[in-house]
Structures are given as C-alpha cells and as structure tokens.
Design brief:
It is built from 20 helices and two strands. The protein is mainly α. Strands 1-2 form a two-stranded antiparallel ribbon.
Length: 456
C-alpha cells in the first residue's frame, strides 16, 4: 500500500517534499551549538527561518548572518543555498550519477517535469552540463570578487568572495559583510557589475543558457549567420531574453527618475552612481536580495514599483523566484491579441498553446490571492506600516530577500508566516495545491455544454 502511494506522487509533490526535508535537516543542524558563534543552541524558530531562507534562496534573516553564526554555520548555510539554487531533484540525481547508480526511467521522468522539458533524451547529459556550468560561473564570480574583498578583508576575503558568488548566482542575497549588505560598495563599478551579472545569469534559467550556447556554437561553425541569432533561439529563450532586458532597463529608468532627488537613497550621489545604483536596484528586486541603497528610504511610489518587480521575479528553471517573466509576458501578449481581435495567441510567428495560457492565468491569480492573504495575516499579527508589511511579504513569497528593516521586528507568529511564505514561494503557490491533491478527479474528463457570459 505504501509503495502504491509512493508511486502515485507527482513530480511537484516530490519536489515540495524534498525542499521540506532539506529545510528540516538544515534546521536541526543549525540548532547545534557548533554552528553559532557564541557556542549556544539557536532557537528552533530562528534556525528554521534561516534554513528556509537559505534553501529557498530568499535572503531574509532574523539573526545577523555574519555575527550570529560560526564558520561551520556559514558553511552549512552555503550548502543549503547551493542545494536550493540548483534544486533538490537536480542534486539528488547528480549524486546518483556520481556514485554510479543507474538513473531509471522514473527518475528521468521526474527530471523532465522538474525542468519542464519536452523530451527524455539527453536529460542526464543536460543535468551534468547544469552542474558543471554552475560551478564554473560561481568560480569565475568568486575570482572576480577577490579583486575587491581580498584587499579589504585579507585572506578572509577569499571565503567572503566564494560565499557571495554562490549567494549571488543562486539569487539568495545572503552575505557575510554585515547588516548593510553591499551599501559600502554602492560606487564600486566592478563589484556591482559582477553581482548583477551573477544574478542575471542565475535567474535567466538553465534552459536559456544552453539554447544560447548551442546557437553561438552553430554560428561559430558557420552553420547559421550571426544576424539570425535570435531567430534560431527557441520561443522560450526569445521571450525570456526580451522580457528580462525590458524589465531591467525599464525598471532602472523608472527607479532613477523616482529617486533622483531622494537624499535617503540616490539623491546625494553623482550622476554616474545614480545610474549604477538604479540598475542594481532594478536587477536585485528580481529575487536577488542584495542592496546598495536603503530600502526603507525608498519613496512609497518607488517601493510599490519594486513590489511589482519582485512579484514578477526571474525566469523559469533557474534560481530566481516570482511568477516568472514568461508568465507576465504571456498575459501581456494575450491582452494585446484580444484587444486586436486575433483568434489565436501568437508571438514571434509562433502560436501559444491554450493550456499554457490557462496555466499562466492560474499562476498569477493564485499567487495574487495568496499574497493578499499573507499580507493580511502579517498585518494582523505584527505592528508595522502597511508598505513595510507588503514589502516584506512580497519579498518572502517572491524569494527576493529585500526588507525595509522589518524582518528584525517580527514576532513568533510573524516569523512562522514569513517562513511559510518563503517555502511557498520556492515551490510555487500552484504546487501547494497539487501537493495535497493525491487523487485524480474524474470530473476533469467531463465536457459540459457551452454557454457564454458577459465580461469587461
């Protein structure tokens, strides 16, 4: 009977339970005295919050990462971040490959669903490329950081560089510098560029990586001309790249204009620093969690705009959270097509399946509903300004990690609610529904008579 139940688990349920298990293991390890700087046992709720923010690559913290945890604690947190960034299924399968265990057809099907791929062919090879690519990018990022952190921190700067590179690539936003994050480096062009590139590369999605690399390889081999670069990309990659660039550039321009004269953020900076800080804010709101300007100091209109950027997040099959760029892009395409009276939904001369449109709509509606409920719960259980509460809750559900100095004021109930929000944001609100749906309903097979209603 148990075996039958186990076989009935969907990929979503396996992933959700995998993350939950990793969080629990991380919690109990972080509670050990050896993981804290003062050698004391860390409370269950604080350890749970830290394990969740690490595995769910969020970045919100209730205890200072630098001062509260020991070196061993930092290593544990880094491992949890790496596990969360790559995904539990990815790492589990990778371990199976390393130890020489055969990857069964069922394992391949789970991988296929986890990466949202259309074929079972070359899945293990694809997985190996993801693992290799991740460590290469993180390694290069760590070396780049050393040019800044080693002169500032000496040999300890090597460890800070490695930790920051992994955290940035995984879009975690946790650092060992202090409570001010990267604000001391707001004018450091090199560090800002390295961090933004790591965030973007991690958040753009693994599928886009290899699609772009494959097209570049074909151009290099003379198979296609460079002017056909975008045309040879898959529709997914095309939409992700266009949406990502649009959100980053558009977000930076709006933040720059809104905060230009604000002395609490970029008002007192030079023109060049204002541009750099605006771009960094635009990038980091897409689920990274690092910051170079005060989030509390943002004007309410800017903070609300950042809420929208956080809610959108990064791209599918990557390290970022949010409802994803492709989801928002698809709904905008649908709205445009309906307004123009088109019978089918298409973009870049390719038609979008109806089931994908339904899924996008469901993701947005369920996410908005859950976000509203969670904001209400945090508001009721904790004292704070509405914008601070909304910013914190959105940041948790979108696994961003930015806060308006509100995380440290959370009471026990608030910590547990935000912990649940971070977990929910990592597995996805739709996944929570599927997680508890063990039975296949026969109602989905019924086809009823059609009747129209008036909308709009």
């Amino acid at each position: 009977m148990k075996e039958e139940k186990k076989r009935s688990l969907s990929t979503t349920q396996v992933v959700a339970m995998g993350f939950f298990t990793a969080i629990l293991i991380g919690t109990f390890i972080l509670m050990l005295p050896v993981c804290s700087a003062d050698g004391e046992v860390t409370g269950f709720v604080d350890a749970l919050f830290t394990a969740t923010t690490s595995v769910c690559v969020t970045g919100l913290v209730v205890v200072d990462t630098f001062s509260h945890w020991s070196t061993i604690g930092h290593v544990v947190i880094l491992i949890l971040i790496q596990c969360g960034g790559l995904g539990i299924i990815t790492l589990t399968t990778a371990v199976m490959v390393i130890i020489g265990k055969k990857v069964t057809l069922k394992d391949r099907m789970v991988l296929q669903d986890a990466f949202n791929l259309n074929t079972l062919g070359g899945l293990v090879k694809f997985l190996k490329k993801i693992i290799k690519g991740t460590f290469v990018v993180e390694g290069i990022g760590a070396l780049c950081y050393m040019f800044v952190f080693v002169p500032d921190y000496g040999l300890r700067g090597i460890w800070i560089s490695v930790f920051t590179a992994v955290s940035a690539f995984c879009n975690a936003g946790i650092d060992l510098i202090g409570s001010t994050s990267l604000t001391p480096y707001v004018g450091n062009v090199w560090l800002n560029l390295v961090t933004m590139l790591l965030i973007i590369i991690g958040g753009i999605g693994f599928i886009v990586w290899w699609d772009v690399i494959d097209v570049v390889r074909r151009i290099k081999n003379g198979e296609i001309h460079i002017r056909n670069f975008f045309r040879k990309l898959t529709l997914h990659s095309h939409i992700v790249i266009v949406a990502t660039l649009g959100l980053i550039i558009g977000g930076a321009v709006i933040i720059f204009m809104m905060e230009y004269t604000n002395p609490e953020t970029i008002g007192n900076m030079s023109f060049g620093q204002k541009i750099l800080a605006s771009f960094f804010q635009s990038v980091t709101t897409r689920t990274a969690g690092f910051f170079t300007i005060s989030q509390k100091g943002l004007r309410d209109t800017t903070a609300f705009f950042c809420l929208i950027l956080m809610f959108i997040g990064g791209s599918p099959v990557g390290t970022a959270g949010g409802i994803k760029t492709t989801t928002v892009a698809l709904l905008l395409i649908v709205a445009y097509s309906v307004a123009r009276g088109y019978e089918t939904i298409s973009i870049f001369k390719r038609r979008i399946p109806e089931k994908t449109i339904k899924k996008a709509l469901a993701v947005v509606m369920v996410s908005m509903f859950i976000l509203f409920v969670m904001i209400c719960l945090v508001s009721v259980t904790n004292n704070g300004e509405f914008m601070d509460v909304a910013y914190e809750t959105t940041s948790a559900i979108a696994t961003v990690g930015l806060t308006r100095n509100f995380t440290g004021t959370l009471n026990m109930a608030g910590k547990l609610i935000i912990t649940f929000c971070m977990y929910l944001g990592r597995i996805g609100p739709i996944s929570l529904v599927i997680l508890f749906n063990f039975k296949n309903s026969s109602k989905s097979m019924l086809i009823y008579s059609e009747e129209d209603i008036t909308v709009g």
